[in-house]
Design the sequence.
């Protein structure tokens, strides 16, 4: 028997956006009640946050840069409240890498200047926000993945969470528990990039109409433990060039936290080469003399991957509708030039809450009232910051040099660049077939030898990701037609899922009955990066939250 739970406001995803939103809403209600007449007080407003991870922070990895602008607004005395701010940034450098050399860019552009920012463990930071939220009486439910939006007519009325205790063949196990229907007056979707619920809302309410398609990148990250405290603590390095080709968008980052280094590579998910493997390029990055010299004696501690929304201002979907709002990465709020989104997620959660306060006062959760959020967002520093870089990623669709030129031009034209808007195409449409890209059919992917110390294969990396799934559960990667995988995709693209997935979830293995290859899935390796749902050239993969 499925249970129903009713709350006033439901936040989906315990990331920085939803937790900031929930805390801010509670504060706004408290402030309102202090001055409101007794009949106008908002009494016992129930606020809940659901999170698919087993605990808050389980889906975030150490080593991110926080611009504290939103934190200062949310919790002005954050230092007294022991905010886990990690390491202040002390130095920024940018390098252009060739195979064996590096060239330091003499000037760091303002967008990559991190003075005043912090290298944080995002996992610790969201745990801290979670504790503050709970102390304010907000109910947080970890281990509950929202799997389905619930509607009444043209209004979102809640979220159904996933069933637990279903076996791989869809048989109910003794531990079976049906999911819960959580009904709310308003649902705030902050489930991160390319969330499955936001996908449902986008289709239901045509939220992408009139917008440019969202384009994404995949960010792969490793955290390394250093043998002794580094003297370069607080150093931030960004690189362009090797191991990526000029036709690919992306670059590397390295954040030195003293005892640990976070190293990552971002690769635009609009690459053309069907044989490109972002994980393999990440391994190549570590063989570069500059990077290798910084990791001497270090040991791999963690690995992770996540997609990043890169489309920017013109790709932000309509983020308000009857009964709901979208915030943070889920709404595409990332400044791809600064490679930052935490502060934008936090502020968007806070602006959502300002709208929700009005909705609670009027008891009107229709788009008429919730639509105020879009206006607040556009007129806030979030809107202004994103408007200043509105054509950044699109400039790189023409290659590295035009991209860098356009980025420079943007800085003096207030974001215009050489054309405004520059426009873009969905990333999966930009991958070319093997014949088209290489001019012949018989090319094989280059591959890379890994040494198990500095470079790793995907299976070893997954071991360091801490990924844990119940093995006996239905496959959470829904493939509409595997005949396409076995025939057209093998022929045209050489099954790129094997390469763009950073966790070896997709493998082509010899067919059990007959010649050729068949797809084998290893879903328990999944890192929830959503890359397969984004980059599959036929758009036949749907990622849904596993148990
Ligand atoms: Fe990412 Fe998809 Fe691979 Fe999971 S299966 S790790 S979501 S690409």
Sequence:
């Amino acid at each position: 028997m499925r249970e129903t739970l009713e709350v006033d406001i439901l936040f989906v995803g315990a990331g920085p956006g939803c937790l900031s939103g929930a805390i801010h809403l509670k504060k706004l209600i408290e402030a309102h009640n202090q001055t409101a007449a007794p009949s106008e007080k908002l009494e016992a407003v129930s606020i809940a946050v659901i999170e698919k991870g087993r605990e808050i922070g389980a889906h975030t990895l150490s080593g991110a840069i926080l611009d504290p602008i939103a934190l200062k607004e949310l919790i002005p005395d954050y230092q007294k409240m022991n905010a886990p701010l990690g390491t202040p940034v002390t130095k920024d450098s940018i390098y252009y890498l060739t195979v064996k050399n590096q060239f330091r860019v003499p000037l760091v552009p303002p967008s990559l200047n991190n003075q005043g920012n912090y290298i944080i463990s995002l996992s610790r930071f969201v745990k801290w926000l979670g504790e503050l939220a709970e102390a304010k009486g907000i109910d947080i439910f970890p281990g509950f993945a929202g799997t389905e939006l619930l509607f009444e007519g043209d209004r979102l009325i809640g979220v159904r969470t996933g069933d637990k205790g279903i076996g791989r063949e869809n048989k109910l196990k003794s531990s079976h528990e049906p999911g819960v229907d959580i009904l709310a007056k308003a649902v705030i979707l902050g489930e991160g990039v390319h969330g499955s619920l936001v996908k449902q809302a986008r289709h239901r309410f045509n939220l992408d109409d009139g917008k440019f398609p969202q384009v994404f990148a995949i960010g792969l990250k490793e955290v390394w433990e250093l043998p002794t405290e580094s003297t370069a603590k607080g150093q931030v390095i960004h690189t362009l060039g090797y191991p990526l080709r000029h036709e690919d968008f992306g670059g590397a980052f390295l954040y030195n936290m003293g005892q640990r280094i976070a190293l990552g590579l971002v690769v635009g998910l609009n690459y053309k080469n069907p044989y490109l493997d972002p994980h393999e390029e990440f391994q190549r990055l570590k063989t570069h003399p500059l990077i290798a010299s910084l990791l001497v004696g270090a040991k791999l501690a963690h690995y992770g991957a996540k997609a990043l929304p890169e489309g920017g201002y013109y790709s932000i979907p309509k983020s308000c509708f009857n009964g709901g709002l979208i915030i943070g990465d889920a709404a595409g709020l990332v400044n791809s030039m600064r490679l930052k989104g935490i502060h934008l997620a936090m502020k968007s959660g806070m602006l959502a809450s300002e709208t929700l306060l009005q909705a609670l006062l009027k008891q009107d959760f229709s788009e008429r009232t919730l639509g105020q959020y879009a206006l607040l967002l556009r007129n806030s520093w979030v809107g202004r910051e994103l408007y200043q870089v509105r054509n950044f990623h699109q400039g790189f669709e023409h290659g590295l040099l035009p991209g860098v030129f356009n980025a420079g031009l943007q800085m003096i034209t207030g974001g215009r660049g050489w054309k405004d808007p520059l426009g873009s195409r969905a990333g999966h449409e930009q991958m070319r077939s093997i014949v088209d890209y290489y001019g012949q059919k018989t090319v094989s992917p280059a591959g890379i030898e890994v040494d198990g110390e500095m470079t790793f294969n995907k299976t070893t990396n997954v071991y360091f990701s801490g990924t844990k799934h119940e093995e006996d559960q239905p496959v959470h990667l829904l493939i509409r037609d595997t005949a396409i995988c076995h025939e057209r995709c093998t022929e045209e693209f050489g099954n790129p899922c094997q390469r763009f997935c950073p966790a070896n979830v997709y493998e082509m293995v010899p067919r059990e009955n007959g010649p050729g290859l068949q797809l084998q899935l290893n879903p328990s390796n999944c890192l929830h990066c959503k890359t397969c749902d984004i980059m599959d050239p036929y758009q036949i993969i749907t990622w849904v939250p596993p148990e």
Observations:
- The first strand starts at residue 4 and ends at 6.
- The chain has a mean pLDDT of 95.
- The CA atoms of residues 389 and 415 lie 5 Å apart.
- Residues 477, 501-503, 505, 526-532, 543 surround iron/sulfur cluster (CB under 6 Å).
